[in-house]
Amino acid sequence: MPFLKYIYVVFMGHIVMRQLIVESPCFQLFVRQAILAAISVHVLFLLVFVYFSIPVLVVTNIGSLLLYIIALWLLRARSFKAIAALIWIDLIGHSLISSEVLGWQSGFHFYLLLLVPMSFLYAFKSQAKRIFFIEAVLVIYLLLDYHSYGSPVMFELPSFYSMLVRYINLVIFFIGLSYQLYVYNFLLQEDESPIPESATTDQLTGLDNRCAILSRIDEIFATSPYARQPMALIIAEVDHFKSMHERYGQSISDTALIHVAQILHDSIRHNDRASRWGGGEFLLLLPGGSLTSAEQIAKRVQEKLLAAPLRKEGISLPVSLTFSVAELLPDESFDQCLIRADTALQHGKQSGGNRIELASVDFATTSPA
Question: What share of the chain is helix, strand, coil (3-state, %, to 5)?
């Protein structure tokens, strides 16, 4: 079982080296304060272990102090990933070694639980991986607790001092936990500075721009595939948009885009997102939507465009759209779904436009306008 503990130390250090990305000035201050606090705690325990003549823990604490001195030196070069690896290896290694020597009842194992809130300062590709990481930490902690609780100790402190060390560790654990939560909340508030509307809005139509809709897509796909709700999408392209621009000019083509954007916005549900995808193309994201409900929205837009042709400068210009409708399949990425939809859109344009194409798994089937 001790071998498992040390494998755990190396594994967690490797995870940290790959995952840490928080490098703001406030985070740098937090790291410095954490290092100084850790040095103070290790000096305290070094004096305790020297007093009780426990050579293994004296050497362990001297090693920990050397690691944190190196961490302070690395901080000058802003080597956060290396610092994080040192901190986590010391945190886990010192906790496990001290628990092995003084017993699980000494309370050094409490520091392992600090790994859970610390995981929120690290980047994971998906929330599912973060949850898996936290669950792994807790499972390993419970296995260690089961194995170590009540096991014989290498050095037994007098009853009073054993209880005193346990409560000192418990107090330090809660101070560390509280400070982590404070820093995490501070970093969140720092990160939540308002984003200018111009950064997420298409200036002509007022819809979401490509960047904004991609950000929303990333949010959806950051969740576990098992927790992700159904989703449909619609690509809508103004028919013969290039010809319209060449024949009537920039003003009319811009007005046509604004006209279409307003109808799209008025035709979707409150939780749907309409965006200008580029040129005369629009992308509608329909969380919770199905192929059928998306097709109904496309038909609704068709009817509104037919009932309200574009009128400007004495010109009455009917505007039509070619739609492709796709529903996200199980285990399908957004890019794969988008490719199916785009293939259906090209099929619709080649068939004359002003139609709705349903993107099936293998091919696009046509729903005539």
Answer: 65, 10, 25
Q: What is the distance between the alpha carbons of residues 89 and 21, in angstroms, rounded to a whole number?
A: 18
> If the chain, 369 residues long, is cut into consecutive pieces of 10 residues, what is the mean pLDDT of each piece?
44 45 60 86 91 92 91 79 80 84 85 77 64 81 78 84 90 87 72 59 90 84 64 94 87 90 92 91 92 94 90 80 93 87 92 90 50
299 membership: H or E segment, kind and range: helix 291-307
Q: Which of 317, 356, 326, 333 is nearest to 237 (CA)?
A: 356
150: left (phi over 0), alpha (psi -120 to 50) or beta: left
Looking at residue 207, its amino acid is L
- Which amino acid makes up residue 122? Y
Find out whether 128 and 224 touch, Cβ atoms under 8 Å: yes
- Closest C-alpha to 75, from 39, 119, 51, 113: 39
Global confidence as pTM: 0.49
Pairing status of strand 356-359 against strand 321-327: parallel
Dihedral angle sign, alpha carbons of residues 25, 27, 33, 39: negative
Residue with tokens 């100084």: 36
